[in-house]
Amino acid sequence: MTHILQPFTPLSAPMFTGQLPFIHNPQRPYIALAPMEGLMDHHLRDILTRVGGIDHCVTEFIRVTHQVYPAKVFRRYCPELDNGGRTAAGTPVHIQLLGSDPELMAANAAKAVQLGAPAIDLNFGCPAKTVNNSKGGAVLLQYPELLQQIATAVRAAVPDHIPVSAKMRLGFTDKELALTNAQALAEGGIQWLTVHARTKTEGYRPPAYWEWIARIRETIDIPVLANGEIWTAEQARQCMSESGSDLLMIGRGLVAVPDLALRIKADHGQITHRQQDWAEHLELMRALIPCLAHLPDKAQTDRLKQWLHYFSLQSLEIRAVFEQVKRQRDVTLFFAGLEQAIRDVKAAPPAAGDFRAYEHKGF
Known about the structure:
Elements: H1 21-24, E1 30-33, H2 42-51, E2 56-58, E3 62-63, H3 71-77, E4 93-98, H4 102-114, E5 120-124, H5 129-133, H6 144-157, E6 164-169, H7 178-187, E7 192-196, H8 210-219, E8 224-227, H9 233-243, E9 247-250, H10 252-256, H11 260-267, H12 278-288, H13 297-312, H14 316-325, H15 331-347
Helix pairs in contact: 4-6, 6-7, 7-8, 8-9, 9-11, 12-13, 13-14, 14-15
C-alpha cells in the first residue's frame, strides 16, 4: 500500500534563524543524552553531565493533555531552567513535550521557551501503553498528517531562533510509514530528527535497525540523530557506519556506563580518557543517595536498584553487588548490605562463570 503525504500547513512555519548545536560543536561524534521516563531526572542528568562527553540532554516528557501548564510544572521537570537551561556542568537541556493536540502542544512549547528552554523536542517514540492509549507517543506514528500538524504548530509558536526537534521510532507495529513520518516532520519545520531504530512493538529488544536511519537520511534534508542499542564504543562505530550519521543519542548505555560518551570520543581521537572502573561507577551512584532522602524507604531503594540493574548489564562486579542487595527494601539495611557487598567483591572478585550469561531481552 502506498501512502502519499498530504501537506498540512495551517500556519506558515517561519524560517529558523538560530544555530544548530551540532554547528556550535563541530567535533564528531556528537552525543546527546536521551530522555528516559522515570529515570533520567535532573539529578541523574547532573551526575552524568559532570562525568562529561555529553553535548546536550533532553528532559523526561511533559505530557500535554488539557491545559497550558504553569511555570512550576516546567521547573519540576527541568529545574535547569533556573540555570539558563543548562546543567551545573554547562550542558544544555532541551524540554520534551508529548501530546496530540497541535494547539496545546504549541502553547506549551511557547511557555517553555518563555521560561528559558533552549530548544523544544517532540516525543513520537514513547512505547508505554498508558501513553499510547491516550493518543500520545509512538501511537501517533500511524497518523503522518497529525505529526506534521503538531510540528508545524510548534515551529510557528516559538521564536525563530529556538530549535524544534522530534524523536520517533521506525513505526508503531511495522516500518511501513517510517519514511513518510520522517518526511512529515521535516516538512513541519523541525530542525533535526532523532530516530530510535525500532518500532513500538519491537520495544527495546535487540537488534536496532540502524540501516533504516540511513534510508531516512536519504529521504529528508535535515540532520538525523541515531538512537538505539549503543552500549560500547564499538557499537557506536557500527551504528555510525550503518546509519551514516555521526550524531548519536544514547540513553540506557550511558546509565550502564556513565563515561561511555568519553569512551566513544576517545575512540575517535577527540580526547584522551582513562576508562572508569566499577568502583568509580558506584561512587557516582553514591552521589545520588542524598537526592533521594525525601522519598519513602522503598522508593529510595527501588531507584538505587534501578541504577544497579543497569550497571550490572555491563559490569560483572556490580552484578555481584546487586545480587546481594536486590531484595532489600529497608534503607538502612540496604546501605549496610551495599557496603558489605562492595567489600566482598573487592576481596573476592567474581569470575565470569559465577553468573549465567546475560541475555538482553529488553525492558
